[in-house]
């Protein structure tokens, strides 16, 4: 009974906190101790900060900006650093703080001592700028005093354009409250939480209560003495804080500006396939291999997809998991060309090389080797079929962008099935007879997956319009899953077995674009394709399914997540590849052979040994 009561109470707390949370805007940044910026004022102003703070001392009849008296410099006056440039910007913007009418600005003058003298001098220094620092006027810059302030009873002794930074423990009359611009306090007064992780439930209640009390008075709230990190910003946002304290205005702006690309919510999860595990891990013959490559798919991308699907993925139905080390011959950070070449040929090569060794000599790929044993192969991509990953299984060039040459290399490949976009590289090739030559090689060409699905035999070249491999966000649909099903149906008629590689090409594209919704929707499509592979493996009993990546893209980090809501908030550290290991999941006979940590070249060697017995 006691346990249920505690859980109910905690649930109530979290519901209340969620209700109090808000979505922060760029203009809700507070540039703390702004004068310490490399370029005071302008750095924060052009980052769109809605609140800028300058500590001041009165010395020799002038107001200087500094945290301590020993920091005072002759050229760092409040007028020179803040008042005059703000007045010039105000005039330039047509008598507005910002050109964008949605943006507002308050200048916080934090008085370190002697507020009577400072305020008197401040009024003098503001005189040359009538109308600029008048928060009562539309578009005016609100002037807010903080630090050593007059007591509330004396607020009205000073001009009406002067506002004050309130405190939660101070009682204000209705008239005094009109002069309070916001309510602030130090975060450590309420919690030992240091900005990492989350506050305790008890502390969350205290923090929420202090913010809600300010809101009930109609005032925004700010905590100072907060850690300056995305995690802190996120947690403060959940609590309902209105002004985010920062010493890094541009970082905060970039985070908030790119929020739509860093956040994803999936209210309704899709259902998973439930494997039978009848042949999983069995020491029996492997007749067929399905290699599924999630281009750019690292553990963070998988975790993001798992969370967004409310804690479940088909990928994680696999019980045997290993790690692939992806470095290229000439760099620890591999690209798709070197990464896929390693899996297709069993040898490391340079970035941008397709099916070539580091000296530029052609390597024999898996489909060509398997063909000698009568095993047929198919290559499928949810993108351009002449792009690096699929190309490594049939082409040989030292520049991955040589897509017409890659298309021509299909003439010398033992591939039996090719599905993807990039038709122009075949149809408008410098070799005008390429399509006919492929037809002479017994390839039957299709420009529609629907047309190809009615043909269950023979060699097939399915070159789809680029629109058919558009992003999932733009409505691609189940092209990849359908293509794999069709490929399996055609290739499985071969009695000696088959090898098929299917690529979730655009997980990588989302990583390069630093676009989380792009990443997750592509990963979910890939994961649904995994279900098709697992289903066939259960039906067949002699099929090994391997799921991996060529590399990780984007340096993805999960900052906040809710499995219950299917929501994820992330950041990216790069728009390029990283060198971290990628997972290898395996299902079916000999799936246990793929546990452990090994070089990506071992994937080729393991497949070859299992499917040919050599």
Task: Set down the secondary structure blueprint.
Elements: H1 2-20, E1 29-31, H2 42-45, E2 51-59, E3 62-65, H3 78-92, E4 106-111, H4 115-126, E5 142-147, E6 162-166, H5 174-178, E7 180-186, H6 201-216, E8 221-224, H7 230-239, E9 244-246, H8 249-257, H9 259-262, E10 263-265, E11 288-294, H10 299-308, E12 320-325, H11 336-345, H12 366-371, E13 376-384, H13 388-391, H14 403-409, E14 417-421, H15 424-427, H16 434-440, E15 443-446, H17 449-453, E16 459-464, H18 479-491, E17 498-504, H19 506-512, H20 516-540, E18 543-548, E19 552-553, E20 556-562, E21 567-572, E22 577-578, E23 582-587, E24 596-599, H21 601-612
Parallel strand pairs: 1-2, 1-9, 2-4, 4-5, 5-6, 6-7, 7-8, 11-17, 11-18, 12-24, 13-14, 13-17, 14-16, 15-16
Antiparallel strand pairs: 2-3, 10-21, 12-23, 18-23, 19-22, 20-21
Helix pairs in contact: 1-6, 10-20, 11-21, 18-20, 19-20
Written description of the protein model:
The chain is α/β, with parallel strands linked by helices. The protein folds into 2 domains: 2-257, Phosphatidylinositol (PI) phosphodiesterase (TIM Barrel); 288-612, Alkaline Phosphatase, subunit A, CATH 3.40.720. 33% of the residues lie in helices and 21% in strands. The protein contains 21 helices and 24 strands. The strands form 4 sheets. The protein has a 10-stranded mixed beta sheet with strand order 15-16-14-13-17-11-18-23-12-24, with helices on both faces. Strands 1, 2, 3, 4, 5, 6, 7, 8 and 9 form a 9-stranded mixed beta sheet that branches. α1 crosses α6 (201-216), α10 (299-308) packs across α20 and α19 packs antiparallel against α20 (516-540). The chain starts with a helix and ends with a helix. Residues 1-21 have low confidence and may be disordered.
